[in-house]
Amino acid sequence: MATVTVPFQEVQKLIEEKLVSAGVSSEHATKVAEVLVHADLRGVNSHGALRTEHYMKRLNAGGINPTPTIVFNRTGPSTGVVDGDDGFGHIVADRAINHAIEMAKENGVGMVTVMNSSHCGALSYFVENATNHKLIGIAMTHTDKIVVPFGGKESFLGTNPIAYGIPGKLEKPFILDMATSNVALGKILQHKEEGKEIPNGWGVDETGASVTDPAKVVSLTPFGGPKGSGLSIIVDIFSGLLAGMAFGPHISPMYKEFERKRKLGHYFCVINPSYFTDIGVFLEQVDKMINEIREVPAVKEFENVLVPGEIEQKNEERNRQEGVRIAATTYEYLKK
């Protein structure tokens, strides 16, 4: 499938225009577009502009509230709950992490659960926000079932991503953003859109056998066998049960029933290092750790050792200058 390279500002503007045309406020459209382009800049196209058409389908069918009344209920000095009123998850999650940041600055820790939300995009955007304040960010969200539990043949778990953001002093933040499946479903969809085969082990058919044709994928597999499967359950508990939302097979599907509100949950935790240790020493030690990891001798298959998030950060530096690479069909859709 052909791809095109487009200035990220143009892509963001086109996404905003699409959403505004469907009744989304300019403020909300700008934020959603910013989160999507954040993913494209980092080279995580599965969570970027590619998603716009899907969101438009849900908006037009009534599955996303274009004008939500988002409410924050502070339940304690360091805790709170955000009710997203079925709006865009990107907006709802942004509100939640900002409340968690405020509480962490005030009291050392801020923890916020989110209810009645929808797909919120790349979690790296939100934990990176925390690191911009020299705070630690943690984010989790659940999804509808698409992953087989370890040893199972039928799906029960979602891709259930988790993300951590750790600030450094001079180094860019340590950002770990990963699905608890071997790969995010969006990457399967991206390969299908681009007409490419997927690596063995990413997805299985209805018999549980691994396939390389993305069109034949029925379920995904957890990373690391029982370890990824167990971590996925934890994510579902924190972002689903703790938020009073559904879990696993009880979550409404993303790519069916477009008229149905998804009622997703998220979990955010922000930690202020200065409440636990000397902030200056902490930030310096993070830099030291990152640099020492890079200095570890690499095996012959690798040029050097990288820390999580480093590839994406390099992608972003380049793509801000050269433009983001997106599927030609996505670009044509945005321009319609």
UniProtKB/TrEMBL annotation:
NCBIfam families associated with the record: PRK15025.1 (NF011599)
Alphabetically ordered keywords of this record: Oxidoreductase
Keyword Iron attached: no
Protein name per the record: Putative oxidoreductase
PANTHER family cross-referenced by the UniProt entry: MALATE DEHYDROGENASE, OXIDOREDUCTASE-RELATED
One annotated GO molecular function: oxidoreductase activity
Parts forming coiled coils: none
Source species of the chain: Planococcus donghaensis MPA1U2
Pfam families: Ldh_2
Similarity annotation: Belongs to the LDH2/MDH2 oxidoreductase family.
Keyword Ligase: no
